[in-house]
Amino acid sequence: MTSTNTTRRRPAASARQRQRLGVGEDGALPAWPVLVFLWGYPIFWMLGLLLFALVIMAVPMLAFLIMRRRLFVAPGVLPWAGYALWMIPCMLMIDTLGRFVSTGVQLSQFIALAIAMVYIVNARESLTPARIFNGLTYIWIFVIIGGYLGMLFPEVRLTMTIGQLLPSVLSDNDYVRELVYPNLAEVQTPWGAEEPFVRPSAPFAYTNGWGSAIAVLTPIAIGTAIGHRTARAIWLLVIAVIAAVPPAVATTNRGLFLGLAVGVVYVVIRLAMLGKWLATIWVTVLGLAVSAVLVMSGFLDGIIARQEVSDTTEGRGNLYVETFERALASPILGYGAPRPSFFSEISVGTQGAIWNTMFSFGFVGLALFAAALLTGVLRTFNAPNLSTLWIHTSIVVATVLSLFYGLDRQLVFVCLAVAVLLREKYLGPSDYWSPEPLPFRMTKRAG
Fold it and tell me: How far is CA 183 from CA 23, 31, 199, 436, in A?
């Protein structure tokens, strides 16, 4: 697969301007805008700012990019920018202020995501693979901790947040309110249930968000531990995986199980295709062990029990049919935002990123979104080592889960990883994108 590097020249900034903004003499970009987003994730959540975290940090990223003398865009990054831009004309189809606010927030997030990807591609000297993947692994651990918070304090909702300062046009919006006043768990009592289902969700508004975050971040955490090549990193990974079991069981989240299963099976197949039989056996054994633990812990029993009183599978199927049929009536620009269903309490265009894109932004938007995801999968398919293979697997898992889950904030994790992999592959040489990469602690910064 061929690739091209795009270079855009800009007027050079003065030495004083570069010093004030933190840009190096050679145009090197500082790491702190991305690191603040990653390591400040718990703070953003407690302040009710998780919805706007990347948008806030994209402002200094954009300023630094403007100050840089030249920009590189790795192949596979531009489709995300194209998708974000397509959302703008689709907003003309919105019929209420509340829906305009929701889509406006969504648009700002995807624009910020595109800026962050370009920034990571150009911040190779400061944002090494280790710094990005360590930060994403830290978020993975925080999500596990959030699961325990939801189990212990299911009725708690954070109220002393930025939501107190927002204008009513924002705070009165259902979508925004759930995010600026975050709850720790979803407590559901379907008709016929003997007792409520307490399903952890923190630091996300919904349990499905917690499950999908664990599903896409676990391969990244595994790849990161392998990249460090130390016994300490592997033991920390094992401890964290074991710790994740109780909140995972409490969520009774089918997508979590599906995502992890897809990831493990995919890695096993890829390793077998490469003839790495010892690694294939290890991953297979560990995957079967984790599956056995989940089964013995009652994870599947919990899913079955919830299905008996809440048949979400049939409801989702009917909603998908309605979504497709109504999307045919506005195939180009879509509807700009989800709309109420004709038969369900759940709005059309909310049960999966693919369906949301199809309904809200038409089949053009769907093609752009699917191209962005599949481009990430295909361009990183030839991952040269076990660490990059696991990171690449997170993209595969996210692509599968996009059929069922919205992935509003989970896509951020995947796209940051995609930006690193594309940069290391196409803007080489790279000590990380190689058959025998150096351990993270020894990785050199390529010029």
Answer: 39, 31, 11, 44
